[in-house]
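Hi! If you just cloned this repository, the fastest way to understand the data is to look at a raw example. We've pasted two of them here, unedited. The first protein comes first, obviously.
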Amino acid sequence: MTNIEDKTFTEKFYEISEDARFFYSSELSGDAIVSLSKKYKLDENELYSLVFLLVNSNFNLELIKQRIKSMNLTGISAKNLWIDFLGYLVFPIEEYVKDKIGSSSLISSELKRLKAEMPKYQEIKEDLVYLIEEKNMEELEKALKEFEESVDPKEERDYVLDLMKSNVLEILSTESLDANLSLNRGLIYLLFNVDDFQDDAISVLRNNQDLIGKENIKLGDREVAPTVANWIKAFIKEEGSDMLDDLTLAKYLDRSENAKKLDDKHKKLLSSLLIFYKNINFFPDSMKNTIPENWQIFPFDNEDNAKFEDALNENKKKNEQQVVEQENEEDENENEKSDTAFDNSNNIDEDDNQEEYVDFKEEDNNEENDFDEDQEIKKEKREENKENVNFSKEIEKDKISEKQKNINHLKEELEKYEPMSLEYKAISSEIKRLEDRNN
C-alpha cells in the first residue's frame, strides 16, 4: 500500500464526528472492505485507499468516483463498486458527516437514483446505530458508577429535590459551569438509579410557585399567576402532553399570547423550564439521538466545557500525529516523490503519477551521469570524503537507531487498535515504510 497515512490524514480523521470515526475504526467497515475486495477481486489496500482519500478530501465524492474509474475494472463493475462503496462505507454515516457532504440524505438519495439494493446497506446502518448506542451506554454506566462511589444516593436525592423546590429558577439561570455539571451528573444518576425520583421531580416542578414574568397568564378561561407550575399547565393546555420538540417550543415562545408578555430574558428562562420538565418527564427517551457525554437534563451554556473537550481532542490528535510524524525534513522531501494517494493537490490521476515516476527515474539517471568525471577528480573526492567516513558511519548508526526507536513506538501504538481499523492500517503502513528504509 502506498504511503497515504500522513499528517493530513490524521488531522482530517479527527475533523469528522466521533461516531463516523467509530464506524471507520470498527469491524463493520473492515468487514465491508474485505467483502468488496473479494467481490471485485481488488487488493484490500486499494479499497482502504479510497476511504483514506474520502477522509483526506473532506468527503469529495467526485474524487472517489474518478479514482474508481481509473481502476482496472469493466464499466459495469466500476459502476457497481461505486454503488457498493457509497452503500457500505458512506451511507451508514451520512447523518454523522452531513457537515461534510451538505445533507443528511444526500447518499441515500443518490443510491435510490442508482436503483441500489437499499436493504443490505440499511442493515449496516442499523448495526452501526446499535453499536454506537451500546458503546455510549457502556461509557455512561462507567461514569455513573464512578459518580455513585462519591455520593450517598439518599442524600443526593434529598439535596436535588430541595434545590428544585426552592431554587429552580436559579438552577436554570446560573452561569456557574461547575455547579451545572455537578447537578446535571446528579440528575442523570438519580433518574437512572433511584426509585420514584422521576415522579417526585415532576411533582416538585408541577407545584413550584416561583414566578417567571410579572403579568398574569391565561390558563384556560382563568387568569393565574405566572408561576412555574402554571406555566407548565398552560403549555400542556395549549400544546398537548406529548414530548415537545424544538419546533413546537419555538412556535410556542413566538406565538403564544402568554409568552408574548415576556421579555427576552424571561422567555429564555421559560424555554429552559419547559426543556427541563420535558427531559425529566420523558427520560430516557428525551435523551435519544444525543451521546451521553452531551446529555443535559436542564439546558446550560457548556461553552467552557466544550473548549476543554476541544483541548483534550487537540491533545489526542497531537499524540496520534506523533505516530505518523517520525521522519526528519530529508525524509519528508523524499516522501513527496513517492506515489502517494493524498498529496497536497489531491491528485488522483494515475497517468500523472506515472509521469512523476518516470521523471523521478530520469533525474536519478542524470545524477549518475554527473559522476562521469575524469579519474583525478574522482580520486580527489574520494580522498576528501575518506576523512569523514567514520563520522558518517556514526551518524548513520544513530539515525538507524532513532528510526528503530520510532518503529518500536509505532508497534506499541499498533496494539491499541483493532486489526481492521483505519488507525491499524495507517500505523502498519508507516512501520513497513520505516522498516524498508532501515534495510
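Ok, and the second one:
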Amino acid sequence: MKITTYPLSLPDDLHRDIRRACKTTSLSQADVMRHSIRIGLPEFEAKFPKPRKAVTTAKD
C-alpha cells in the first residue's frame, strides 16, 4: 500500500474533538483522523455532489 503524507491545519475546536476521541478510543490522532475521513467520506460525497458543467452558448 502506498502512503501519502499530507499536512493538515485544524481549527482548535476540531483538534480538541480529535484529542477527546483519542482518549475515548485509545487510538492515535492519526488513526482517529483516518477512520473519521473514511467513515464520513461517503456521507460528504452524498451531500455535496459534483457541480454541473456550465452551459455555454455559441456566439456568431
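That's it. A detail worth noticing about the second one: Residues 11 and 60 are 50 Å apart (CA to CA).
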